[in-house]
Amino acid sequence: MYDENNIFAKILRKEIPCNIVYEDDTSLFFYDINPLFKIHVLGIPKIACKDYSDFIEKSDSSLRSQFFENIKIVINKLDISKSGYRLVSNSGTDGGQEVPHFHVHILGGEKISAIK
Ligand code: AMP
Hints:
This protein is an alpha+beta fold and 116 residues long. Helices cover 30% and strands 22% of the residues. It has helices at 7-12, 52-58, 61-78, 92-95; strands at residues 20-23, 27-31, 39-45, 85-88, 104-108. The chain has a 5-stranded antiparallel beta sheet with strand order 1-2-3-5-4, covered by helices on one side. Residues 7, 16, 18, 32-34, 42, 90, 96-99 line the site of adenosine monophosphate. Adenosine monophosphate (AMP) is lined by residues 7, 16, 18, 32-34, 42, 90, 96-99.
């Protein structure tokens, strides 16, 4: 069950401000409030979905493709295409997800160490 009061749902409803990198009808990209790397941006689709699996279930192919194309637009905007980047999406307890609205972390601006 999707929690309508999660912090990203509030950001989408403009009840909480965020520092926007890119936005269109399908999705919103904004700076992480607690960046773990020099560049740390979050991307969220504008539908109620709690994680990647839920996003795939609830989205149509047009929304899916637009969301992933927007990630590329943001990567170009951040100018990290050449230096490299990491895309991460956490899900549930084992995945260490804190905010239960599907999101992709776009990380870069410095060398990111191995996951484990
Ligand atoms: P996750 O652990 O994958 O659920 O990541 C949630 C991310 O959301 C964390 O990196 C937080 O720093 C970030 N975050 C939480 N609240 C906000 C907020 N109000 N604005 C921007 N980022 C946030």
